[in-house]
Design goal:
This protein has 17 helices and ten strands. By secondary structure, the protein is an alpha/beta fold. The protein has an eight-stranded parallel beta barrel with strand order 1-2-3-4-5-6-7-8, surrounded by eight helices. It has a two-stranded parallel ribbon with strand order 9-10. The protein is elongated and about 85 Å long. The protein starts with 10 loop residues before the first strand and ends with a helix. Bound molecules: manganese (II) ion (MN).
């Protein structure tokens, strides 16, 4: 099913249930995690990172339940490069038809010195031992160099080389702290692709955070440099400002295939459903103007825009709402709306307005719209009956 041999296939690795779930406000119950995992399977993502099995018994249990119930994608658990962590991942992933161990260790000077208290040589040894140990149980092993983007380039390349020689099949280079820029990440991956040169079958992966609002742009720049796996989350949830938003990176690659020349296997028309499922499961609302899945993503209020939309949606939309599974384009009626949109909506509601009544109706509409933020269908019906009443009344009085 996974088109892994093709060089223009970008794998989508979802970490909503791991990086997303571990952030404040986004913790999920077991039932919620299972609902999310099913929504992700329906999206046909390549990999679901189901949790961090060694983190807690609850995490291990959730990874196991997802491994049992989610069909299709590879199910993955995070693990430090230590034997107990990898064993916990292996145990939790037992029921999975396709599974992956995702092992990591910090590689930057800060992580080495202050968190791990390990020298470079010790880090390289730990990577070698950890990946080899993981390969005893897993055919599919991903290695991550935590805080890779603040690691010395030559040492980072060395870490990845050791990982691939030990059997890692995916090399993930995370911007753990959301620090890098699109230009720099392109440069970094261009360097790594050239200097690590892991041979066919090994995939470079990117994992970006949105601290400076550049997670999606950085992930796309990485793809341009040869990266073929993007780690991301639904609605962009994740540590601090969140991760690369899946719906955005997937729709950018699809809408601008002319520019990137690559494809994902995601069923994009399930994106809206996955986004709403996450809202329900976490009780955290997506911001209204969120790209792709926000309530305004396909909504138009300005009169000139609404007129254009009614003539040809392509005048103001680069994607169709059905491409991402949004119910439909909404022409929101408010003080910015014009006559065309109001009459079109009334026609949909089954009202034909006599041309001579249009000016009075429009005046009444504008008055109401000044008082209310949005004019609903109900308001509109009221206006029509109100407007015709007035006309009738004025006829009678003449
Ligand atoms: Mn992360």
């Amino acid at each position: 099913m996974t088109n892994s041999s093709s060089t223009d296939h970008v794998r989508i690795f979802d970490t909503s249930l791991r990086d997303g779930e571990q952030s404040p406000g986004f913790s999920m119950t077991m039932k919620g995690k299972l609902r999310m995992a099913k929504a992700l399977a329906a999206l046909n993502v390549d990999v679901i990172e189901a949790g961090f099995a060694a983190a807690s018994p609850g995490d291990a249990e959730a990874v196991r339940a997802i491994a049992e119930e989610a069909e299709g994608p590879i199910i993955c658990s995070l693990a430090r490069v230590t034997e107990p962590d990898i064993e916990a991942a292996a145990k939790a992933l037992e029921p999975a038809a396709r599974k992956r161990a995702h092992v990591f260790i910090g590689t930057s000077p800060l992580h080495r010195e202050f968190k791990l208290k390990m020298r470079k040589g010790e880090i390289l040894d730990a990577i070698d031992r950890g990946v080899r140990f993981a390969r005893e149980t897993f055919e599919d092993v991903e290695f991550s160099a935590e805080d890779a983007m603040r690691t010395e380039r030559t040492f980072l390349a060395e870490c990845l080389k050791v990982a691939t020689e030990a059997g890692a099949t995916t090399l993930n280079v995370p911007d753990t702290v959301g620090y890098i820029t699109p230009e720099e990440i392109f440069d970094t991956f261009s360097y790594l692709v050239e200097h690590v040169d892991p041979g066919p079958g090994v995939v470079f992966s990117v994992h970006c955070h949105d601290d400076l609002g550049m997670a999606v742009a950085n992930s796309l720049a990485a793809v341009r440099a040869g990266v073929r796996q993007v780690e991301c989350t639904i609605n962009g949830i994740g540590e601090r400002a969140g991760n690369c938003a899946m719906e955005e990176v997937v729709m950018a690659l699809r809408t601008r295939k002319d520019s990137y020349g690559v494809e994902t296997q995601v069923n994009t028309n399930k994106l809206y459903h996955a986004s709403r499922t996450l809202e329900e499961v976490t009780s955290e609302k997506v911001q209204r103007n969120k790209a792709i899945v926000g309530r305004n993503a396909f909504a138009h209020e300005a009169g000139i825009h609404q007129h254009g939309m009614l003539s040809n949606p392509e005048t103001y939309e680069i994607m169709r709402p059905e491409d991402v599974g949004q119910p439909n384009t909404t022409l929101v009626l408010g003080k910015h709306s014009g006559k065309h949109a109001i009459l079109a909506r009334l026609e949909e509601l089954g009202h034909e307005v006599d041309p001579e009544n249009v000016p009075a109706l429009f005046t009444a509409f504008k008055k109401l719209a000044d008082e209310k933020k949005e004019v609903t269908d109900e308001d509109l019906r009221g206006l029509v009956s109100g407007a015709s009443n007035r006309v009738i009344v004025s006829e009678v009085s003449e």
